[in-house]
Amino acid sequence: MKLLTTIVCLVALICGNASGQTPREKPKELEAIGRYVGDWATDVTSKPAEWTPHEIKYRCANHAEMILDGWFLQHIEVNHIVGEPDQITKAIWFQTFDATSKKYVTWWFQSSGLMGQSTGTWDAASQSFTQADVEPPPGTTNRFVERFRDAGTIDGSLIFTGNDGARKMFEMVWTWKRQASIAGKPLAERWAMIGTPIQPIPPEVKRLEAFIGQRDAEFITRPTAANPNGRTQKGTMSGQWILDGRCLLGESNVGTVQSKWVIGYDTNKQAYRYIRITSLGQVEENIGQWNGAEKSFSWKGVGEPAGTTKTSTTRLLGDGVVESHIVTKNQAGQVQLDLTIKSTPRK
Length: 347
Prior knowledge:
Helices cover 8% and strands 56% of the residues.
């Protein structure tokens, strides 16, 4: 989703119009990802390649459901190396259809510390999704394909090759089998359990502790040219560790609008990644850095339209109080949104 759409919807939300406006019609393309909904067991084989010279087999348990009023697919996974049940990796990813680019977009996070984004298409004739990483490792290209053999079986493959197309860097194949007998709740509880947390805890991750727990929030919108009537709204927030303490999963509620967000530290980018999705179908992406002197995070929006600038700062004020200030301006320098979000731990 383009940032401009997010800004317009966010202004409507804070001004109190969101609950009264006619909801946007969901794209019919979302029906394709609905095929994943349910519980699955997956057998995975990592084939010998340059990055992984020896074959490795994995066993996965998966649960997928549509969330946030049906705008997004949330998918959780717990997998282990066959024969080594303690070698566990967890993952979460969110998928939707972006009507602007006419592509399916997926954001994924793993307990290994890997995180990223992929985009792709659905082919109804072959009943398959084809996707590729937005930012693959330097010097490589990749191709991810999942084909629905039938309602209960999915065949998948992921291949990374060198840019010359000749060197096979990585290859993985898998088969999903629908499991009517696997309950989603036990898997979710296992997925949410903090197993062996990363040790020592990197300082970049430890800074996220300020967002843990239940919080009361105040959303203060100041008058701007685009929104001459300011307003203050009350809401709630919560945050919890996920993926064995590697990332933070948050939820917020303002009026009738619900949001989910994930924050993690991307060691490849040497930056924080923040993804927020809402029950209005909005997506907000940010890349952030920590300022130790001011005890604050500074954020830069991803995918901003030409001519739009956005600055966002999140400050840790002490006693658990967190304050974020977001300002967006158009090409002429006019302020379109001036929003402060202040949250305090619930007593």
